[in-house]
Amino acid sequence: MTDFRDRDDQDGSGIPRRTAARTAKLASLPLGIAGRAVGGWGRRLTGQSAEEVNATLSAKAAEQLFEVLGSLKGGAMKFGQALSVFEAAVPDEMAAPYRDALTRLQAAAPPMSSKQTHRVLAEQLGRSWRDRFRDFDDEPTASASIGQVHRAVWHDGREVAVKVQYPGADEALRSDLRQLQRFSRLFQALVPGTDVKPLLAELAARMDEELDYRGEAENQRAFARAFEGDTHVRIPRVVASAPKALVTEWMNGTPLAKIIAGGDKSTRDSVGALLAEFHYASPAKAGLLHSDPHPGNFLLLDDGRLGVIDFGAVARLPHGIPRHLGEMTRLALDGRSTELMDLLRAAGFVRPDSDLQAEDVLAYLAPFTEPLATERFHFTRKWMQRQAMRVGDSRGQDFRVGRSLNLPPEYLMIHRVTAGSTGILCQLDAEIPARAIVERWQPGFADCAI
């Protein structure tokens, strides 16, 4: 008799659910990379150059990263998607394979079976769920970390997107994030320019709210109300929701990943400006910040607006972006080190017992304000790589200053989302009027001018 107990329990969903199986796949990442490093050392002894060997190792590591994180979905894929926006910080000589692998994580994952999809919809929308649709396409149009999306026609004739959560997503998400935290140092080395530990901690903290699509529906309704009639942004309306199924209006548009790969300069600049405007305007208009910035969540619509999807992760900012951030940004831009240091201490960014010097802190922060020093700024991968190398060089002064500064918990999400949005701007190679956007929407920035 065949024993099925050791098989991956997928139930036709495409998401391995047994903790042991998922752990083994995640553990294969550091083991595989270590094995290839030993093999690379051997190839150097046989005459291959270090550059050739390193390029081969990078390509194989990237392919393995995509294969493991993408096939597991759950927390593994969500982590990969979060990492993908930081590929612009990876040095050019090793970036190409990671760029391709991490970008594919934004939209790819094996789908679950039609039978399993129907079962979830029956559980969530009722046994007569088909009566609510004129048409339903069993082939998913997109697969993501904890669910997949189907195109359909609602009973009133509206085109809709139907998001269906994978069975076992909750178990997989929790298991993955526990395992990924064990390997945080490895991922830190694979993708320079990111702070992996806090990213994983944040994904774990907001896990429960992302698993309940009713919360996502409420977030999306709030964004849709705030941007109703907006000439720059469109948020699709929610049509129906349940804990593991979400129906929203369908949007036709060009994915940002396609624009990043081959859009012309005018389109890339336009999309970059729309993205920056959405990022800074949302807290002021909706009291919320869209907190999952990767290209898979944005579309350029046919009417020139930015279409935004996926509201499972948001930061609640009922009073908008804190005024202190605008004041600090302006003080750093103007080189006012003493006032900047006083404000940083008052807001909890510098511990009372710290011996940091005001000029050193200014030297660390000022380069981040470069996009606001001119009327238009060109966001490039090289600019982001310089910032990542500057703050990541353990031998440099900026590294020591950065490690000595404190980031209060209430600013952590804002900081990560801003960094992620900046990463997309650099992927777009966009030149935008960043200063005018910040002056309009960031409290404290214009008021703190000399």
From TrEMBL:
Q: Name one GO molecular function term.
A: ATP binding
Entries under InterPro entries matching the protein: ABC1_dom, ADCK3_dom, Atypical_kinase_ADCK, Kinase-like_dom_sf, Prot_kinase_dom
* Protein kinase domain location: 135-450
Q: A Pfam family this protein belongs to? A: ABC1
| Claim: Nucleotide-binding is one of the keywords in the record | yes
Q: Which UniProt keywords apply?
A: ATP-binding, Kinase, Nucleotide-binding, Transferase
* Family under the similarity heading: Belongs to the protein kinase superfamily. ADCK protein kinase family.
The cross-references to PANTHER family, in alphabetical order and at most eight, read: COENZYME Q8, PTHR43851
This protein's name: AarF/ABC1/UbiB kinase family protein
* Lineage of source species: Bacteria, Bacillati, Actinomycetota, Actinomycetes, Pseudonocardiales
